[in-house]
Amino acid sequence: MIAYHKKCHNKNFEKSRGLAVVSVLISFSLLILSLLYLVQTNSLVGCSYKIRQQKEYLGKLKKNKQNIEMEIAGWHSPAKLEQIVDSLGLVEIGEVMHLDTGEKSMTMKNL
Question: Residue 88's closest CA among 80, 96, 97, 77?
Answer without folding.
Answer: 80
